[in-house]
Amino acid sequence: xxxxxxxxxxxxxxxxxxxxxxxxxxxxxxxxxxxxxxxxxxxxxxxxxxxxxxxxxxxxxxxxxxxxxxxxxxxxxxxxxxxxxxxxxxxxxxxxxxxxxxxxxxxxxxxxxxxxxxxxxxxxxxxxxxxxxxxxxxxxxxxxxxxxxxxxxxxxxxxxxxxxxxxxxxxxxxxxxxxxxxxxxxxxxxxxxxxxxxxxxxxxxxxxxxxxxxxxxxxxxxxxxxxxxxxxxxxxxxxxxx
Length: 242
Known about the structure:
Layout lengths: L3 H4 L2 H15 L11 H8 L3 H13 L3 E4 L3 E4 L21 E11 L3 H7 L7 E10 L2 E11 L8 H6 L2 H8 L4 E12 L2 H7 L6 E11 L4 E9 L18
Antiparallel strand pairs: 1-2, 3-4, 4-5, 5-8, 6-7, 7-8
């Protein structure tokens, strides 16, 4: 009969064992972990499988690999926080969206350049409302470089998250998402959509997505109702998966 241990991949167990040694203090910040050869012999696995385990630890921020020297324990940097916009704010299963508007703004270089799309003249603008039940939670506005011959499906416009929309519509691969979080007063139009008072403070989350060569691919702004949306972050969320 198979038990839990036999169902867990060996590279995952390797990563979990090293993680426990780090958390217990047996391995300290700066310590060199065993080599790939040593770990392979210890767990009776190939070097490729060892590398999978080491990659998990590196992704979780527990070790740093220096070419030619080995892998060293790193202290978790608790001041570096990760925000997952797909799983914060409002429980995912309670959220639905209403597509408000989709426009192709043609031949407006000033508008495109103001957004940061240097040299562009046409931009796709998407606007949707996030709701929890009947309560409006946030207004999302997304702006993308216009790509002729790359239409967006209505389901993508209404339900897909911003990075997914960018990835499906652009020829360049999105690799970086910069975020700016601020507070602003609601305009009359925003207040009406959010069923709130004009001038009340709102959380504003701006995302700017770039390609590898720093080409701007998309800009999104989410204006959130102050009482219906909360932003959470955690340090090294991947630690919980080990």
